[in-house]
Every structure is written in C-alpha cells, then in structure tokens.
Amino acid sequence: VGLSSVFPLTCAVQNYAWGKVGLDSEVAKLVVGGDPVAVVADGKPYAELWMGAHPKGDAQIKDNRIAQTTLGQWIAHFPACLGSKVKDTFQGQLPFLFKVLSVKTALSIQAHPNRELAARLHAQFPEHYPDNNHKPEMAIALTRFQGLCGFRPVEEILGFLKSVPEFHALVGNEAAGELLCSMGDAVHTSQVLKKCFTRMMNCEKKVFVDQLNMLVKRVTEEGAAGKDTSSSNGDMLLRLHSQYPGDIGCFSIYFLNHIVLDPGQAMFLGANEPHAYLYGDCIECMACSDNTVRAGLTPKYIDVNTLCEMLNYSPAPASSKIFPCVQDASDPCVSLYDPPVPDFTVMRIQVPASVKQYTVAPVDSASILLVIEGDATATSAAALSDVTLRRGTVLFVSANESVSLHITSQSGMDMFRACCLL
C-alpha cells in the first residue's frame, strides 16, 4: 500500500431540498466541526454528508503530500487497501457508502431493488436506474428519528379502512372485504395486501385528489373542534399534506408502520421494503448504489407498476423493524450493527471519560471513521503524521491498520465506523 494508508477526508455535502437548514442540520454542524473555516449558509439545506468514493460525491483527501486528490482515485491506485477478500469480492471497489442525513421534510416513499431486479431495471430504463447493484441500507438515529417502514399488521390497516372512509374509497369495497376475509392465512393476506396497495396506487388522479382534499378538510375541522384525530392518523396526514399537497403518498401512512428511533437505535431496510424517512438526523450506511423505485411524496419519476410488483407485502409490527446492535465480544467500547448483507457493517465506538488511550482495532477491510463527539490525537504507523480528531473529523483507515488515540476531551469519545466484514 502507498506511503500513507490512514488519512483524513473532506466529504461531499448534498444540499437536497428536504434537508435541515443551516446550523439546525447535524450535517452542517459536523462539516463546521471538521473544518473550522467551512462556511455554512443560513438559508441553505444541508441534507447529506457522503463519506466514501461514490462518483457523485467522491471524498477529497485532506493531505497534500498524497498525490491522488480523491478517495476513489487513491483506492484505484492502491486496491490492496480494501483488504484482499473485499477487493476480490467487490471488484476493487469500496462496497459501501457511509452518510449522515439531516431530514426536515419527508423523503419520497421508496424501495430499493434486489440485485436481479436492479440489473433488469438498469438494462431497460438506464435513465431512471443508473446502476445494476442492490441497495440495502441501515439508518442509525443520532437524534430522535422518524420514518415509515414496512406494511403494518393487517388489523391496523383494517382499522384505518373502517375509520377513514376516504382511504376506503381508494382501496375499494371488494379489496377491503377480501383483506378482512384473508386474516389468518399469511400467503393469502400478502396477495390481497398487494391488491389493496396496487388499487390505491393506480387510482385516477382526480379521484384521489378529491378524496385527499375531503380527508384533509375533515381532519382539520375535527382538530379545530378539539376532537382526537388519531384514528385517522391526523397529525401525520396534515404534516405530509403540507409538505406534498395532493400527493398519493399521503395515503400510504395507512399502510406503512410509523417508526420512531431513539438515538442509537437502528432500522435495516432490505430489498423491496417500502420506506420513507420523515424527520431527524441519522447515520446511514448502504451498498454503493443509487437505485430507487419511488411511490409518492415526491415530484420525481414514479414507477407505479415496478413498485407494486416488487414490494415485500409481509405485514409486521413497527417494533419488529428496529434492528438490534450487539456488543462486540472483544471490546466493550464497540457496538456492532451487522446487517444480513455482506456489503457493510457499522460499529459504534463509545470510549468512556475514564479512558485516555484507546486503540481502534485493525479489521480486514478498509473502513471510514466519523467522530461525533470528543477530541483526540490519532497516531498510526500507516499515517504520515498525527491527525487531530474532533467532532466532524472523517478518517479513512486501510485494511489491517490500527490507529491509537490519545484522548484529550473530558467526556470521552463517540464515533461510528463503517467497514465490510466478510
């Protein structure tokens, strides 16, 4: 591997419209923390920080003694930095993209294809599906984080069909009746759930806009009269409708689970799982892909047929969507978020205030380390010089390299590290 195989990065920021604005954004705070001369514009959204080598946001190497300017270029020159297994399995590419997201308004309801479907969509519609990879992803809350994820238990959907006539009108009597009769037969339920969701998604625009306007008017009036609108999921409806008026996605809240993650809790989104992020800040890690099939809460291209065909129609309670982390057997400071895909694993490293020397252990994979809280000096045999770590510092660590931290902050350290454990 080249001269230096541990070095800091300056990461790409994406200013998507749904992001939190200015220094309300965790992304903006981390950018300023990592680079005190960085300028954050007051009125500008700071939606995503991309830590990786994706061509749409390749990180810059923050060390002018290194000839290559971006992480992607550096990995192309020194693919051994990935670790031999990772290099061979993923054709010399970093297999994951690590991110921070700061969400102010809802992201579109979407699902990501599995590898087989991704290859087919990319071949047929390259303008909408830019690559042939799958895109499993995991979100770990930094602040209280809200999202929609997976189909609700059937009892809950039936409850909304009963108490929200406008929703019932879009699904139709026949499909709603079938759903009630399918209770207790999982295979049949999933087929009928698909029929119900497809009916709603294929509703004529005029019909669903009229029903949505009636629903919003009714919930607004009931709320103004001091009535409880929770049986119509009123608060959520009005919030999404104010963000995306006249959007079919406003009705998806009656099909999908509302998930609230406390800081440190995670959700894993496998292939074909319908989901939308609603509000809050999170760490996200995903396979390196941009493939998204959208279903609503978006002005972008909506591919209704592909979406309705591909979704996983397995109803399950919200609690089942929370992905557990496991304490690392060899290091009490490390919690592992290890999803059921090979492309990535995330570690949270929490070093208590009493510990002043800590070693970031070597793993057989390139990794990216983000500091959320704390200050330290990092030394490594593989680095050209010491690196100062503070809130917002992002460090690239080549495979099988260890990094020693001399911790200077009074309250310990909180860090996240993405890698690929094959």
UniProtKB/TrEMBL annotation:
Its main location: cytoplasm. The active site is at residue 294. Binds 1 zinc ion per subunit. InterPro entries: Man6P_Isoase-1, Mannose-6-P_Isomerase, Pmannose_isomerase-type1_CS, PMI_typeI_C, PMI_typeI_cat, PMI_typeI_hel, RmlC-like_jellyroll, RmlC_Cupin_sf. Its cofactor is Zn(2+). The keyword Isomerase applies. It catalyses: D-mannose 6-phosphate = D-fructose 6-phosphate. Residues 185-256 form the Phosphomannose isomerase type I helical insertion domain. Zn(2+) binds at residues 110, 112, 137, 275. Pathway: Nucleotide-sugar biosynthesis; GDP-alpha-D-mannose biosynthesis; alpha-D-mannose 1-phosphate from D-fructose 6-phosphate: step 1/2. It is found in: Cytoplasm. Its EC number is 5.3.1.8. Residues 336-377 form the Phosphomannose isomerase type I C-terminal domain. GO terms for cellular component: cytosol. One of its GO terms (biological process) is liver development. Residues 6-154 form the Phosphomannose isomerase type I catalytic domain. One of its GO terms (molecular function) is mannose-6-phosphate isomerase activity. Keywords: Acetylation, Cytoplasm, Isomerase, Metal-binding, Phosphoprotein, Zinc. Belongs to the mannose-6-phosphate isomerase type 1 family. Isomerase that catalyzes the interconversion of fructose-6-P and mannose-6-P and has a critical role in the supply of D-mannose derivatives required for many eukaryotic glycosylation reactions. This is Mannose-6-phosphate isomerase. The gene is mpi.
